[in-house]
Design brief:
Length: 227
């Protein structure tokens, strides 16, 4: 999860039309297209990019009764099926990564452990209830739970995807650290910055890896301080 700048006012006219229909839907094309663009085609929770199983998700549950929540543009998020299914209505409230001025990585810390068994540890950096709920949700998304075997298998598949990206990122950092020639070092620096952009997969995990290493953090802090 990283900070996202939501387009405002967004497709509110289309949502208002659907809201006033007897059986309207918030899943209309303009809404889906704008969410896909705003969220860089990444799930806002796990940051899987280009999933073939997508949902328009509600930050705050509407429970089929609250039309303002169901059709409210600022309550709609781009999510993969795994994360939406894991979240359900059990985790509320959680961090709104699209809130003005939000810097998610000032509230959450991510640690990816590749071996001996891959694991993602998420730590809260403040004592707010929404932070604690987000930590619980993201922990279950990434590591699964004994109560949901299929979700745990999905989580293992997600970690495999993260592992591939993480390993390539670590090799890139190693090449950057070993580079002697200024031009070569600059090329590796640019590639690291590309991997830390909001549109890259699993940006939060890569950014926190950088944050945990003082020399790297000093070099790339401008890239990660906006997340």
């Amino acid at each position: 999860m990283i900070a996202i700048t939501r387009t405002l006012p967004g497709p509110v006219a289309e949502l208002d039309i659907e809201k006033n229909k007897p059986k309207g839907t918030y899943r209309v094309k303009p809404v889906a297209e704008q969410l896909k663009t705003d969220f860089f085609n990444k799930c806002y929770l796990c940051e899987l990019k280009g999933s073939t199983s997508l949902n328009v998700e509600h930050l705050s549950p509407h429970r089929g009764k609250d039309k303002d929540l169901e059709f409210g543009w600022i309550n709609l998020f781009w999510s993969c099926v795994h994360c939406n299914g894991t979240k359900g209505e059990r985790f509320h409230p959680i961090i709104d990564c699209t809130a003005p001025g939000m810097k998610v990585l000032e509230r959450l810390d991510f640690i990816f452990e590749p071996f001996p068994v891959s694991k993602v540890t998420i730590n809260g950096l403040d004592d707010k209830a929404e932070t604690a709920n987000t930590v619980k949700l993201l922990t279950e998304i990434h590591n699964g739970s004994k109560a949901a075997p299929i979700r745990s298998m999905e989580a293992a598949n997600l970690r495999d995807c993260i592992l591939d990206v993480f390993n390539r990122f670590v090799r890139l950092v190693e090449q950057y650290e070993k580079a002697k020639h200024p031009d070569k070092k600059a090329r590796f620096s640019q590639r690291i910055r590309h991997a830390l952009k909001p549109d890259a997969p699993y940006t939060a995990i890569m950014a926190c890896f950088v944050k945990h290493h003082p020399r790297l953090n000093a070099e790339f802090s401008d890239a990660i301080n906006v997340l």
